[in-house]
Amino acid sequence: MTDEQAPLAPPAEAAAPAEVASACPITADFLPPNMRKHVDPKAPAPLRKMAAKGLVPLSPSDMCGALFMLMYDPDEDVRETAGKTASTLPDRIASAAFRDEHVQPAVLGWFLAVFAENDSYAEMLILNANTPDDAVAAVSATCSKRTAEIIGQNQLRLLRHDDIIRQLSTNPVAQGALIDGVCDFAVRSGLRLDDVPLMKAARVRLFGPEVAEAPPPADAPPTADQLMEEFKAEVVAEDQPPLEEGKKLTLAQRVMKMNVAEKIKLATKGNKEARGILIRDSNKLVAVATIRSPRISDGEILTQAQNKAAHDDVLRVIYGNREWLRMYAIKLALVKNPKVPQAISMKLLNTLQETDVKKIATDRMVPGSVQMLAKKMLQKKAEAKKEEK
User: Fold this and answer.
1) Is 218 helix (H, G, I), strand (E, B) or coil?
2) Cβ count within 10 A of residue 12
3) CA 35 from chain center: how many Å?
4) Cα four-point dihedral sign 202, 187, 164, 62
5) Cβ atoms 137, 170 nearer than 8 A
6) Span 257-276, pLDDT tens digits
7) Considering 33, 232, 274, 296, which has the largest number of Cβ atoms within 10 A of its Cβ?
8) Whole-number Cα distances in Å, 221 to 157, 275, 381
């Protein structure tokens, strides 16, 4: 690692004192059972110290998670050692972990604070969809010009979390053209931040001073918060029964009137009923925000994997998620979905059970190339069995 890339030390507030050691926001469930002792406050200090030094054989992602947990250790020496190890990680470990979308959000957010001045690592963490928006907002005001550009290009984050624009607009090294572009995009998407001078300037630039200074009209599209208040039971709680047809139609009509920014917020905060409407939105940012909702269920993922009319970007999120691909039904659905790229379908086909491969080989609804590959796979297996005899 060069001097230019040298990372910051871990933030002081992350090194929790003994009395708040139990406040660690994650548990050790992500670690292999035989490794959890290395982050257990009740385990002998030498075991925890080993992990704090990075001497325990863990995957890069698990090592970063363990170091984060040890920043909450009751032993000050363990905390200091973990902080030093975290801030001087070898590139092979940091690069692998920071790109992994299955690392816990709290871990990724903390490492973004640690490496905020390291452009390469900051970029990896900001591009990682699992890194919390509030962590990105926290570095937006003081990050380098290069990192500011990466943040400004992430349209989904900009619309999902208002404070990113607030902080980015105050960054003294961010180029004016970048901030103007960010604010113009946000205004066009329906975001209104009257407390941000550059957003007000963008409204003037796009709509003229009369429109820019005018308050929102009485018939303005509903906001996510307004809709959640109006349909509180229907779009907030996850365990609600299906809506009656009339009410569902009313809700859908109200949602469709919302601007892009508010739809994205509803996709993040709303329940299955709201997501079911928004996942079909013509704007890909809204659809992707929906599939990336932290509240989305495995059943909803399966439904979209089966959906032959799903957005390409939604399917890309699904087949790019290793955790979801561990669910056999989702893999099978993706193989059968003609909208999934053939290269992906063929790769997944090799992981299916023979009974399903046989069905795919004769299923006319499956893309011809996938069907042909299934037949070839079965033929090879049959030939191999004959040779064994």
Assistant:
1) coil
2) 7
3) 27
4) negative
5) no
6) 999 999 999 999 888 888 99
7) 274
8) 21, 18, 59
